Amino acid sequence: METELNIIEEPDLEDPVLIEGLPGIGNVGRIAAEYMIKHLDTKKFAELYSSHFMPIVLIDDDEVSLLKFEFYYWNNDDGKDLIFLIGDSQAGKEGSSGHFDVAEKVLDLAEKFNVSRIITLGGYSTGDIGEEMEEGPEVLGAVTHSEMIDEFKDSGINFEDTDSNIGMIVGGTGLLLGMAKKRGMEGLCLMGETAGFPILTDPKSAEGVVEIVSDILDIGIPLEDMEEKVEEMEDFLNKLEGLQKKSMKQMEGGDDEEEKLRYIG
Amino acid sequence: METELNIIEEPDLEDPVLIEGLPGIGNVGRIAAEYMIKHLDTKKFAELYSSHFMPIVLIDDDEVSLLKFEFYYWNNDDGKDLIFLIGDSQAGKEGSSGHFDVAEKVLDLAEKFNVSRIITLGGYSTGDIGEEMEEGPEVLGAVTHSEMIDEFKDSGINFEDTDSNIGMIVGGTGLLLGMAKKRGMEGLCLMGETAGFPILTDPKSAEGVVEIVSDILDIGIPLEDMEEKVEEMEDFLNKLEGLQKKSMKQMEGGDDEEEKLRYIG
Amino acid sequence: METELNIIEEPDLEDPVLIEGLPGIGNVGRIAAEYMIKHLDTKKFAELYSSHFMPIVLIDDDEVSLLKFEFYYWNNDDGKDLIFLIGDSQAGKEGSSGHFDVAEKVLDLAEKFNVSRIITLGGYSTGDIGEEMEEGPEVLGAVTHSEMIDEFKDSGINFEDTDSNIGMIVGGTGLLLGMAKKRGMEGLCLMGETAGFPILTDPKSAEGVVEIVSDILDIGIPLEDMEEKVEEMEDFLNKLEGLQKKSMKQMEGGDDEEEKLRYIG
Amino acid sequence: METELNIIEEPDLEDPVLIEGLPGIGNVGRIAAEYMIKHLDTKKFAELYSSHFMPIVLIDDDEVSLLKFEFYYWNNDDGKDLIFLIGDSQAGKEGSSGHFDVAEKVLDLAEKFNVSRIITLGGYSTGDIGEEMEEGPEVLGAVTHSEMIDEFKDSGINFEDTDSNIGMIVGGTGLLLGMAKKRGMEGLCLMGETAGFPILTDPKSAEGVVEIVSDILDIGIPLEDMEEKVEEMEDFLNKLEGLQKKSMKQMEGGDDEEEKLRYIG
Known about the structure:
4 copies of one chain form a homotetramer. The first copy, chain A, is of the alpha/beta class. Chain A has a single domain, classed as 3-Layer(aba) Sandwich (Rossmann fold), CATH 3.40.50. Chain A is 36% helix and 25% strand. In chain A, strand 6 and strand 7 form a beta hairpin. In chain A, helix 1 crosses helix 6 and helix 2 crosses helix 5.
């Protein structure tokens, strides 16, 4: 198949913003996007399948399913309409061209619905386990066009440290912006700081990201029930963590033979 | 070539069920499927070759042959006709898109013969060496559509533990179901529990799987000569185990240089 | 490019036999084929380039060149004409589909010149360092069609141990036969036994292989100057060994960072 | 996308020479080419993007950008016009066919502007840390056609040691020459010797390379401000070094899980 975009319904959207959240560090992007999907009155309208995803099916709610990306829309009466993209997995292994192919198809959908701005959500691990973050985790930002930074100057997004400390973004979260820029779209990346071992789901960091998205889009998403909502997602998040660990093992060349053998059908 | 389907004969089949058994954990799926092929009056009617298989030829019965999948059919006078698929190998390395390409071609054949239900057979390793399994190994199940579970409620298949304990199926056994579902077919995966080191062929686990297939399809396959039949397959199964070990080494990045060098022509 | 066949001259060949020798275990196949090319009055008539080869250029005779396969022909007044194929490298990394693509192109050339039989030459490592081989190294054989074995029953080729002890052939030497068989051609694989660490060039093993080829094709190639001819090839063979070591490192995932860094341009 | 060449402006160039400098050992090629671009009155006229590059965006000058190659031209009133190519990265992982695809596109541009000679710049690590190089680092050379060596006999380029000591060139620096030769172009590779750990940027070695290029093309580039110019590039060079380390890790199969996890978006 390579990469396949299945549009289930053609919603009527005005100048929408696309918000992406894939699994990754602390699952920050995925949780933040899924929380907004659950909170707002969104509706699923498209799916993306790809042979660049891992050759794995998830078993959930007693059914097997291919790994996929899902697109939801929200008609915002008071402002810009929104498209949310969440995924079960990053595209393929690091270093493969799969990442590019999948991002192209996402941008094809974005162009079809006249998206001119993309916000990608992810996590950034400081690598410090147990570090004190008294003022809560920071949210680092990066943009496709430097003149955008001015627009967000009162949002609390930290742009300064992104350039000097991070220097590069790996995987879908960054690539989608880089490729959007090449197509003439604007993009903003928000990365919630997460302390400690980065594969552990970090709802606190996601909260910081949602707060900023809610603020800059002026959509008033309350954060009280974040913890509860994340608990509801927990069973599925555990599966994603399992997937990510498998994926890590593959990248590393793998050293846990027993573990691997237990999975191969 | 990529993936090539060679249909040798076009059998007349009515609403057939496709039963798949590839090498994998404990070789449970391959043994179970091959045992049924040998027991029933089946006939080979198609082969599948793919450049996604490992660049290896097997030497068997004094002849070299490419790795391949083989399709057999059985005209069942008292019920649904059957197509069996057995293979020498899983498709390519984990993580490659080869798995998807090969599964697509298998489903092309399935559609051509109006298959509406697929049963994939595999093993599941508990990872417990020498574990006591007093009541014999369990058979875990997974389905493409949750409403199918009801149909199998008296079959002895354990669906409960699949969702919570397994969570995902890796490789052809799972992928074939996920992709069949996307084409509107129904699928059932049966995984025989196998204790101990998973690469060792486990006929006992395969017996449990055959028993359930025989029961749900009502085809009355006796199990007395299972052990004898598996002994006949032994020389070939050893070669498959060799292949699987090589394949594992590749996935791991490999650490046994000597071993590897001995094979490269 | 993928894989590109450049035919320099179209020789007039009658029912030729194709003899292949690629680098591999003990470089047995490559040395044996190159020795025959140098001894007989052969002429180069085609080259094959592929993006499945490693992204490396060799520096030889003060010039850089891409890795390539070379085809030579020999008009045999007393029997079947011959085509020789030697290569600088096996195709790509193990596990990739590159091996298949390159073999297809070789067979395209074979079909164009009406080749109906292919002889592939390689080595087989016993893994025993310093093992005594009093009667000289054996030559193991494998065929595409079991009825061919009878034809070679007095040739001294050992077919018995191939099936039981080897069981599979990895890389071009085997794959070319498996794919030739699928196109309706006959094939014979000759593997010279080589003791010790397999990456070391083993002219003694190659001698045994040349002796058998000379005998079954009745082309009377003397072996006296084998050692001398191999010495002439030595500088180039050292480069091939360097290539093979690099290739091994890649397959292994690599552990010698220093070594690797020294090569990257 | 695969590989995409975006020509921004079509300069009028007479029989230009293409000079390439990619990141690599000691970043010698990249620094040397970038220094000449900064010193001469060059203008950017084309970019190349490829899905064979790593799925990473760089954050520089407060903006995210895909990895890319950049082409600059210089109209030389007193001699041949020049095209400079610098890149953020080598193409893809070693062993992939990405290297070939990217090189083909570079040569497509070269042919379009009637380039008949290519000079590729790189480094060569002696592997000796702290080695004394009293007469400054040597510059080793390799050519596509041995008769070119005579032309450079008074240039101070060392051709003798290239054949015997190096024997092969890995990656874009070599491949571009090998493929140019196949298209009928001439090529020269200049490799600045660099002592010590090769991933560390080595401006001294680059100086030796620039001196020779300036000399053989007679373009009179002074070397006094080399150190200062390299300091200006430092922030970006640090990012390239980060990229190269990541790339190394991938080639090695990776062993620093923490490090890797910190990057995945």
